[in-house]
Amino acid sequence: MNGVHDMGGMDGFGKVEAEPNEPVFHADWEARVMALVRAMGAAGAFNIDTSRFYREALPPHVYLSSSYYKKWLLGLENLLVDKGFVAPDEVKAGHALKQTKAPKRGKFTRDDVERIMVRGKFGRPAPAPAKFKAGDRVRAKNIHPATHTRLPRYVRGHIGVVERDHDCQVFPDSASIEAGENPQWLYTVVFDSAELWGADADPTVKISIDAFEPYLEAV
Amino acid sequence: MAHDHDHDDHHDHEHGSELSEMQIRVRALESILTEKGYVEPAALDAIIEAYETKIGPHNGAQVIAKAWSDPAFKRALIEDATAAIATLGHVARTGDHLVAVENTTSRHNMVVCTLCSCYPWEVLGLPPVWYKAAPYRSRAVKDPRGVLADFGIALPKETEIRVWDSTAETRFLVLPMRPAGTEGWSEAQLAELVTRDSMIGTGFPKTPGAPS
Fold it and tell me: Which residues of chain B does A80 touch, with a Cβ-Cβ cutoff of 8 Å?
């Protein structure tokens, strides 16, 4: 979706301001939200792409004015209600009131923590040979899906060069809408700055994205 | 968290309410999910404890120090960072598709996630607020030298800058250049010089002898 989360190349957000000696969390609730998202994902309530889609789908003014973990909370609440794990009146009441759908892997317990400290695997067997190889010139397609995609707007329509592949991986555009993993070849594609930002761009800069095969067309 | 000190009393009160509103709201959701039997609070405590005490940039720093000290490990790291780090068992447990990218005198690497906040948690811990915020995400791909200036660093004009936008589940770890004047240093000493930002590409390692 063409949302405000797709920020690459936007102007007007100001300087990057790093906080010296920044704590891991700025409030206890931030830590609880992070842990709840990890736990409910691991319990099978959603995959990582669906959780990203719910954060991107927050109204633009909410997305831009909420702190990072507030976005995580709002996305989590919306997702859990939409998917039927929590009822809307339960969110209001702050308590469980009725039987709802349980996550498919059941309760997330202390014994499950160790396994989620390592990222899951996203690589999958290839359903078809790769269309592209290192050195190929490719164009990022001019596509504008209304649902989740990992093709940022700032590369669409532009030509880059395939640097390498990363085998086949879960396709976020499908997984995010629970349409299956639909594995696709994944490539690192490199763009010259002038191709993306015009003739005045800094010629020493190159930008790469990791692009799934359906995002690319041969040039 | 930003706090505006220009608020009058009324607004200060509202600000306080908003903070507690978040606490109340998160506690409510945790209660619901606990009562339903989806999660147990002790599991949440353990996740939080891991990110507060065990997993952080010190993990990545050990990887970098090892790469600076051991050419065979460095080659393995560049070839397949996930597999190479797995051989260091005690350092960090990395998942799939970590890619180490090496800075040289002619090329500087910088990592961003313009779409959200993808970051190599297992070697760097949770990302800092600036990494997840709009100024960095919007500008890193268009004006990386300007972003580096915000961090107070400058590269030679002719140095190539490669910006890696983390748009898939690949994760990137920058291998910074080993500082001069560290010949004969142990891995533990070298690891002390490796900063978090030097592994994102928005900083350099510390210089030996400089005040930290």
Answer: 29, 33
The nearest CA of chain A is from the CA of B187 a distance in Å of 24
How would you label A82-111 residue by residue, b for 16+ Cβ within 10 Å and e otherwise? ebebbbeebbeebebeeebeebeeebbeee
C-alpha to C-alpha distance for B88 and B62, rounded to whole angstroms: 9
Chain segment B173-201, per-residue pLDDT in tens:
999 999 999 999 999 999 999 999 999 99
Query: Would you say B154 and B126 are in contact if contact means Cβ atoms under 8 Å apart?
Result: no
Q: How far apart are the C-alpha atoms of B83 and B73, rounded to whole Å?
A: 11
The span from the CA of B77 to the CA of A190, in Å, is: 21
pTM for the full model?
0.94
What residue of B is the nearest CA neighbor of A96? B32
- Pick the closest to residue B49 from A34, A182, A14 (CA basis): A34
For the CA atoms of chain B, what is the radius of gyration?
Answer: 20
The three-state secondary structure class of B51 is helix
